[in-house]
Queue: 3 jobs
Job 1
Amino acid sequence: MKQLMGVINLDHELDLLNELTYFRCGAAVPFAGRYRLIDFVMSNMMHAGVPDIALFVRRKYRSLLDHLGEGRPWDLDRKRGGLFILPPDWNDPSDVSTGELQHIHNNQDFFERGSAQYVVYSGSQHLSNVDFCEAYDYHLSQEADVTLIYTKVNQLRPEHHPCTRLDVGENGRVTDIHHERDHANIYMEMFIMKKKLFLQLVKQCIAHGESHFFRDAILKNRRRLNISGYEYKGYHAVINSLESYYRNSLDLLQPEKYNSLFREQPVHTKIKYEVPAKYLETADVTNSLVANGCQIGGTVDSSILFRGVQVKEGARIHNSIIMQKCIIEENVVLENVILDKDVVISRGRKLQGDVRKPFVVAKDTAI
């Protein structure tokens, strides 16, 4: 879809996953055994054929840069266009922009050089299989200034509380934007807008000392702009807290949830060549996701193991998420636990959290 250029804005995404975001931004947090949260929106844009994607980052993005590289898994390693990772630039002495608008202002050449006439704008906290081509066609059919992408959730959970809600009429027009917690129409922090209008609104916001595009350009002008709402009806999860990360991760152990996220269209990620998982004679694994490179000699139940995890004989893991290259020694017991990368749990230790509040161990820790 050469008419679309992508913007993934991570500037406003706070580090809300506690220990998991000590050393990385939220978009780089590992998910589902082999992915990162950023992979899902990147893959959605790839499947829509978006040729140019700008990633706005500000802090703790070393892990993200290592993961994305030149963008090859998403077909963005090109001689012209492709993936642009754009930290804000403070070298312009005349720059008065602040917040996320600073990214747009100081990287305006990205928009001006691109041939696409429309911008698809997103964050990374809403995991989905949105078809941006379909949303773009809907935007054109509505003759809207901006189309906001939303989903109607069946069950409101704590992670939905900070989300913006939309009132959408039968004609597809957004009639109100608000934060009523009992409202089921969740704005997914994605929108489509004509590039010319987008840059005009950015310029106006900066001139008035504003700093946040959605709040200051769209929300404050909701009575003046022609805003439509595109309803997305597929898999959706919001990852904006440790509890939501833990629950939505383990929900993927349900085949219908896993299939709805991964079977409709593939999710691309950084390629790592690992040997297949090895199960010793003493291994007992049930209802779990186990990535390549693992070696298991203990009991694993209802858990997710990332690449290269070692589970020694006699160890028992239940309802837990064990990230890359962790070592679980003999006779360790883990229940309702999240271990970040490269954690070592020594022989005979027992760590137990609660299903509503998992026990988390930060990266590179030895216990």
Job 2
Amino acid sequence: MSEKQVFTVIEGGSVTTPKGFTAGGLHCGLKKTERNDLAAILCEVPATAAAVYTTNVFQAAPLKVTRESLANGTLQAVIVNSGNANACTGEQGEADAYEMRAAAARELGVNELDVAVASTGVIGELLKMDRVRSGIAGLPEKLDGGAAGAEAFCQAILTTDLVKKECCVKVKAGEVEVTIAGAAKGSGMIHPNMATMLGFMTTDAVIDGGDLLGLLRTATNTTFNMITVDGDTSTNDMLVTMASGLAGNEKLTRLHADWEAFAAAFTHVCKSLAMAIARDGEGATKLIEVQIDGAVHDEAAAAIAKTVIGSSLVKSAIFGADANWGRIIAAVGRAGVPVSPERVDISLGGIEVLRHSRPVAFDEEKALHYLQKSDTVRITVALADGEGKATAWGCDLTYDYVRINAAYRT
């Protein structure tokens, strides 16, 4: 069943579209510019919640606090700042994250253990807590259930991002329409493993916590875990989902007749956000999509796809509009999974450049035009080794990426 048959994208929808959610943001002074840098999402009731996190062993203080809050399986609010990651900040950093949770709970009128904390920005610097305290005190009046609140929230979580990332869909669960939405930030230091940079999803569906966590993990594996910008996994990666249950549907479980439709809608939101992150990679000019077919199994296909999309040589070739299939097949060959070296086909946007691991004559001018003019470059690799398939997304590697990251802290 196609995506269009099971759910509908809500144009202009946001994290405040599902029933029960408000959001907002403001500038408290963590960023040098006047852009928003502190935000919150609030649910009017304790929501069933789940999260996935970075696997980087150096985990920022907010992750410890959020894990503790989620131990009971519910959340009612998320407090998030940009401009400072609060990572590698020792005992003081942990104390500051706990203070953020306590202050948000007090100002928003919720249980402290129902508040998640997230931070993003420069690593190794202590938060300016006087500014954070003042900002949290001003957040309640900024919360809004409409587009303005969602916009302020999205702007507040950005760092080097050029654009906000959000998606919203609706899907039927029995006779009831439920809504799923998400917002994310991420542009650099992107190579997630069980998480993304920062992501926040809301839904008004009635769903068990275990089923929500399982769905989140499954969807993450085929979306957020299949993107890369620069091969770096952050200390702060986190994806949090809250389900208010206010749609009033019959509880969704894996045995529900509409579970597959709900899962498809949920996964679409994750995929949309993940692709938006890849497209907005620091300095990027193009989104790159790598599709692997015919691997020995899906896991092998995923490993190959991520190796190709993460190759600096492949990314550089795409930036330079060079149809250099040699960069691609070399990446395929070093992915560490079984591949028959004599049966690989490669195409660039439908232009076949390799057949059975041998070069074929192709129109160089046509390939050049495709690579220069397309804002999305699709690389297809067919292996003929099995039924495994996977798709990964990334971006080209440009001069601007080096410029941005050479002076990120200063």
Job 3
Amino acid sequence: MKRMVRQYVTKATQLMQWGKIVLPLSSIKFFPPQFVIRNPVAQGVKSAFREGYEAAVIVFNLKNLKELADFLGPAEFPKFMGRFRKVFREAVEAEVEEEDIISLHDFYGDGLSLYVRAGHDRNGLSVIDSIMIKVAGRGRRELHAEFPEAQMVLETGYMFVEKKHYSIQEAILKAHQQAVAMAEKRIESEFNEMLFIMGKIISQKEIFLLAQPIIDVATKEVRAWEMLTRGPAGTMLENPFTLFSVARQTGKLYELELVVLEKALEEIRHIESEQDIFINFTPLTLGNARFIRDVKRLMHKYKNISPKQITFEITERDSIEEMRDFIYNIKVLRLMGFRIAVDDTGSGYASLNTINEVMPDIIKIDRSVIENIDKNSVKESMLKGLLLVAREAGSLVVAEGIENEEEASVLTRNNVDLAQGYFYARPRMLEKKIAT
């Protein structure tokens, strides 16, 4: 009887150790595992949405939990799991900005789920990817140093929380389930369903494009349009964050971005536009060895469209240093007549490094620099510095995310070339025969 009691206590202790919800840094609290979606998580996600951010969940699952328990035994396994939680919490604290952490959870005992806020543009995707890789790598190294004989198999995946869902708690749970499916890539799981759906979207080109005008700051005339992608209307993939995150994790990102290019060319031909068109591409696609061949094929199909009308806008901050074909492809695209823009300038070192590597024709200044610039002299000094960088690189400047007249006035007095944002116009469908 005593032996049975001891076994029960040991098992209960293990379960209790795994029944924790770890909230950010200084405000760590613990809750039992049945309260999966607690108010702190929902409130954190709501707060991120209110502040104009996206929210995403990243899961770190131990695939071989049972094998680890058998290998380590009842004495060492609880220690390993305790260290697993502590090491990954420390990795999160080291690799993620404190204000971007919503919560870190132990949901089901086989891994951890990290909720973070992400930027309001597609650069948020590469940020999530980077967090996932850095936290997982750091956690693996730390645990391997302490338990070198324990062969940990860690699976990772992520998903954005859907903003339009009628229930925030259900949206959080749904995002978590989809992230787990991405991590586990199980047979007969949601991963295969998403793979099928993404394949169908690509094969049938089931996306649509909106366009936001890029305005001449001095004359207030429309000089160009940026094409913005949306997935199938009325579905979870209509949201571009979800669409591109699923495409990235299912290995369909390159094919999706080619569909975006073809759709944009179709749009230009249909409306007979002669204005410049900006189209977003990740460095992963621009650095693909097949990209130049595929661009030439599409331009041959749309012979009436000049490459000089198209600007390839480099989104996200994937590292370009290890992309052997990236710089080569950029040079070839320029020889073909295309222009190159770098997005999100001013949001971090990576964008400035990309400018140095690419020497773009156009530099787009991130909303984080522009927001409340009329009330912040430091931000205006940053803008002036970026304008100097642009002049040295021979680049035009587009200021993004202008939302009011006060911000626009700062651009005028600093002689910024171009601007876009809700102050000028919201994204919309393009119409035939755009006025020039």
